[in-house]
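subagent[fold] <- orchestrator: predict structure for attached chain, return tokens only, no commentary.
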Amino acid sequence: MSAANSRPLRDQELTGTPGYAAYEMRQLRTEAERAEAEALVTDRHIWLTRRHRPCPAATSIASRFRQEPAAVGMFENGGRLVCCLVLDQTPAEIWLRHVYSAPGSTSNGVARLLTLWAADHAAQNGLAHVHVEALLAEGIGTPSVLITRYITYLHELGWTTLRISNGPVGARVVHLRVPAKRRPAIQHLVRFALPVEPSDS
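subagent[fold] -> orchestrator:
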């Protein structure tokens, strides 16, 4: 999830045409879809690095989308991939891992939709929360003000910080969660079209 000016999306803004969703969440099944996700992660890494934003090592994460069975994408109705992630789901909990939005997309809007969709999805599965982990720094001198702004952005989306721990070389990882909440209107914006296989993580 990428930092930008944000505010929580209110229920009355979840409007759409019944039977027609602007976005679709689905598993990355074809080689073309996985290649598109790999390219999206690489492009996003370049975008973040140029702006001194927190980001993981691009090569290892991007290549993971080639093999990860729980990799999913948010596609525009026209078919363009705007977000990809690993949906690590078990009967006990749901984690969103390695979340990336496409450079040039309205990443703020995509992150808000993803948050609302995930909270609704968790509620439908009888869970209390959705968890996410986000990299804070990669040991490259990321200004602390950007890290603070990034955490604030996630809080504005509705996420609550649980803890900060050590991650990959020189990195810190913030673990957050958002309460599950049914939002039936979200189906008019984001359609979920897959059963998800367990993640290897």
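orchestrator: received. Logging for downstream: Confidence is low (pLDDT under 50) at residues 2-18. Strands lie at 23-27, 71-76, 81-89, 94-101, 129-138, 160-166, 171-179, 190-192.
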